[in-house]
Specification:
Blueprint: E1 4-8, H1 13-24, E2 29-33, H2 39-47, E3 51-54, H3 60-67, E4 70-75, H4 89-106, E5 111-115, H5 125-139, E6 144-150, H6 154-157, E7 164-165, E8 170-174, H7 186-197, E9 205-209, H8 217-228, E10 233-237, H9 239-248, H10 252-266, H11 273-279, H12 286-295
Parallel strand pairs: 1-2, 1-4, 2-3, 4-5, 5-6, 6-9, 8-10
Antiparallel strand pairs: 7-8
This protein binds NADP nicotinamide-adenine-dinucleotide phosphate.
């Protein structure tokens, strides 16, 4: 009997959370990993009872084997942060995801959950790839699809890795810092992805995911300042500078990353309530994230 869910992107931030939640719900999970995937992440999947199989979105035959016998596929993969030779937006986010949809159809997968992102301003390769895969999935003939369109992840965009350095009370602010976004936690996106499998109202649906509160980067700085008592040092990247970088970028990844930053500057709230209603789920708040990351610093802030 088909019952396993195949997760593509399982060694990533969101895919790892999806696997953990599938296993916590007692559901069998199969993960695609690559010979180059970080060994610690593969070990954590195995320790959680996930069946690990080698594959690559660029190798069509591996995709058929991965989908064979699976009832559902959840794809969170992207080449934007985790890149190996030959990986690009074209080869992975577009052609690889299209090949995965085709492999899922060919092998009789019943439900395909695709993690895209909420519509953003501007034409750029990552957005074009996401929209093309959404369209192909909707037309694929796979009996059920769920397209999730989350906004910006708190754990990525409000983290030191992207210049939101709560450890040192300093931040790189895009534009004025007043552009409002419904930041969402990775764990919440995983809850929506796993929840969609058993929720008929989430089938054949496109769901925009975001936190309930739309906040500018400066609002989040204020939350950190209030909670920690430290005043932050801010560096602003003017919107005009981001526009110039965007217009001058010829590399598809670079153009896409600048477009994402420019959209942080511009802001663009979404209405998260329809998805919350369909899924009967309520995302956590940015202030919960602030509490969590500050509590995780045993020595307090480093400033
Ligand atoms: N970051 C945000 O704010 C945001 C917002 C909305 C939507 N999203 C979307 O959310 C999804 C998950 O993001 P994330 O942060 O979890 O990504 P991530 O941590 O960078 O993980 C990417 C995953 O994709 C896999 N991958 C890359 N190239 C591959 C290939 N050729 N074949 C097979 N697997 C490949 C990686 O595998 P290896 O470990 O083997 O490299 C890894 O498991 C993405 O689709 C992203 O577009 C992100």
């Amino acid at each position: 009997m088909k019952h396993v869910t195949t997760v593509v992107g399982a060694t990533g931030l969101l895919g790892g959370a999806v696997c953990k939640q599938l296993r916590a719900a007692g559901l069998p999970a199969r993960a695609m990993v690559r010979p180059t995937s970080e060994p610690g992440r593969v070990e954590r999947l195995e320790a959680a009872g996930v069946e690990v199989r080698q594959g690559d979105l660029k190798a069509r035959s591996s995709l058929d084997a991965l989908c064979e016998g699976a009832r559902a596929v959840i794809s969170t993969a992207t080449s934007t942060r985790s890149r190996q030779a030959g990986d690009s937006i074209q080869s992975v986010d577009l052609e690889g995801q299209l090949a995965l949809v085709e492999a899922a159809r060919h092998t009789g997968v019943e439900h395909f959950v695709f993690v895209s992102f909420a519509p953003l301003q501007g034409n750029f390769p990552l957005q074009e790839a996401k929209r093309a895969v959404e369209q192909a999935l909707m037309r694929s003939g796979i009996p059920r699809y769920t397209i999730l369109q989350p906004t910006y992840f708190t754990e990525i965009w409000l983290s030191p890795a992207l210049g939101f350095d709560f450890l040192n009370a300093q931040a790189r602010i895009h534009g004025t810092g007043h552009g409002r976004l419904n930041w969402i936690s990775v764990e919440d996106v995983a809850r929506f992805a796993v929840g969609a499998l058993g929720r008929p109202r989430a089938w054949n649906a496109v769901l925009q995911l975001g936190g309930e509160e739309a906040l500018g980067q400066l609002d989040v700085v204020r939350l950190f300042e209030q909670r920690s008592g430290c005043q932050w040092k801010l560096e602003h990247i003017p919107e005009q500078a981001l526009r110039e970088q965007f217009n001058g970028a010829t590399d598809p990844l670079q153009r896409s990353l600048v477009a994402l930053m420019l959209n942080v500057a511009l802001g663009g709230p979404v209405d998260p309530r329809p998805a919350m209603e369909v899924m009967a789920l309520r995302p956590s708040r940015v202030r919960d994230y602030v509490e969590r990351v500050l509590a995780e610093q045993p020595m307090g802030l480093l400033v």
